[in-house]
Amino acid sequence: MYDALIVDDEPRTRQALIKSVDWKKCNIRHIYEASNITEAKAQLLEKKIDVLICDIEMPGGTGQDLVDWIRDQNRMMGVMMVTCHPEFSYVQKAIRQGCYD
Fold it and tell me: Three-state DSSP class for 45?
């Protein structure tokens, strides 16, 4: 079983993701939440997170900034980016960082 962290500045989005997915079927044991990159980093330092689900655009730092920080820490985990941002260059950079579509 795996642990996941959902990072999004919108509480409704986090709750929608939590409620709309059958996490046990996905082999996810625990789901943690963070509303910004600072909270996410604290949780990543404190817990063993296997899957990161992260908004690309947030106040105080982007999801891509967080992925760069994770890679600098030599942490290995699956990363999925979510966004409603229309700018495709954000998506291109996330894919280049090894994130899932």
Answer: helix
